[in-house]
Write a structure and sequence with these properties.
7 strands, binds 1,4-dihydronicotinamide adenine dinucleotide, binds D-galactaro-1,5-lactone, seven-stranded parallel β-sheet, 14% strand
Length: 274
């Protein structure tokens, strides 16, 4: 696998462009040389050319991916929800996206997976190694389960149809960390753009799964598969640590909501029926 290349004038379909990460990436990715085509089920103020469509609309998805070099697939429900909603947006929706890519000859997808695909994994104790990327799937929610499906779908479309994917198990991508747990799993927006650029542009990735976090002093993730793509994280959550620890206390893995990687997703009650 060679290192990340210049984006040149590559066109990328950004799904979920109205969301939190999508909004950040609309500003941060064009300087790498990408021309972004935007899609979301919600209209995006100030973006008259954005495609407003649901992931259930395969014809519009086909039109949206046509002629692009890659897709950065962020769209979907981003928190726990009822199974029916997760099924429609995250499971069926991601399948529709891959079918649109296959039918239109698009060869690269970057899939926004999540730490919640492995959220039931115990938080590593002091002195224990960082969580490896091949840790088994242990979803903590229907939401996390949909990300396991997305990763398997990506593997299937690589093996069966030769569509390459980088599945990025994002930790917490927000302008700054807002909890003690996030000090370990924070992905700064700028590092997010560095990682998505590497995932979009590095040749010959097959299906590669990577952890998506910054160079956090308190990191729990092994970042080697991300670094093999040419990703060099430059940010660290540590400057935010003193204030968050003063407010919350140190991370306490004897508390059920802090004992596993998924944090409170692990202990939150299920949503039934929606
Ligand atoms: P978000 O909820 O702010 O944005 C998601 C966007 O997807 C929304 O604008 C929504 O309208 C759109 N969307 C949802 N269902 C759709 C559908 N059926 N058709 C078309 N559009 C649809 O989420 P955020 O934080 O921006 O996350 C982006 C992606 O990254 C999500 O897939 C999320 O699961 C994943 N992720 C995010 C993390 C984070 O820290 N922000 C952590 C781990 C994963
Ligand atoms: C996610 O997968 C969510 O999309 C995001 O909103 C955060 O909750 C993040 O995980 C997290 O674990 O902090």
């Amino acid at each position: 696998m060679a290192a990340a290349q210049s984006a040149g004038s590559r066109t990328v379909l950004l799904t979920g462009a109205a969301g939190g990460v999508g909004t950040l990436m609309r500003d941060l990715l064009p300087p790498y040389g990408y021309a972004l085509r935007l899609l979301d089920m919600r209209p995006i103020p100030g973006e008259p050319d954005a495609v407003t469509a649901d992931l259930g609309d395969i014809d519009t998805l086909r039109e949206a991916v046509r002629g692009t070099d890659a897709v950065l697939h962020l769209a979907g429900i981003s928190l726990e929800s009822g199974f029916e909603q997760i099924l429609r947006s995250n499971i069926e929706g991601t399948y529709h996206l891959y079918e649109a890519a296959r039918l239109e000859g698009v060869r690269r997808v970057v899939f926004a997976s999540s730490n919640h695909a492995v959220g039931m994994t115990p938080w590593p104790g002091p002195g224990e190694p960082r969580v490896p990327i091949d840790t088994p799937h242990r979803p903590d929610t229907f939401y996390g389960l949909s990300k396991c499906f997305g990763e398997d779908l990506a593997q299937f479309y690589w093996d069966k149809h030769g569509i390459e994917t980088v599945s990025v198990r994002i930790g917490s991508c927000f302008p700054k960390p807002t909890s003690v747990r996030m000090l370990s799993v924070w992905l700064s927006p700028q590092d997010g753009a560095r990682l998505f650029h590497a995932a979009l542009s590095t040749p010959d990735v097959g299906h590669t799964v990577v952890h998506g976090s910054s160079a956090n002093t308190r990191s729990v993730w092994d970042l080697s598969s991300a670094k093999a793509l040419g990703y060099t994280p430059l940010d660290d959550s540590e400057p935010f640590a003193a204030e968050l620890i003063a407010a919350e206390g140190e991370l306490d893995t004897t508390r059920p909501e802090q004992a596993r990687l998924g944090g409170h997703f692990v202990t939150d009650p299920p949503i039934w029926p929606h």
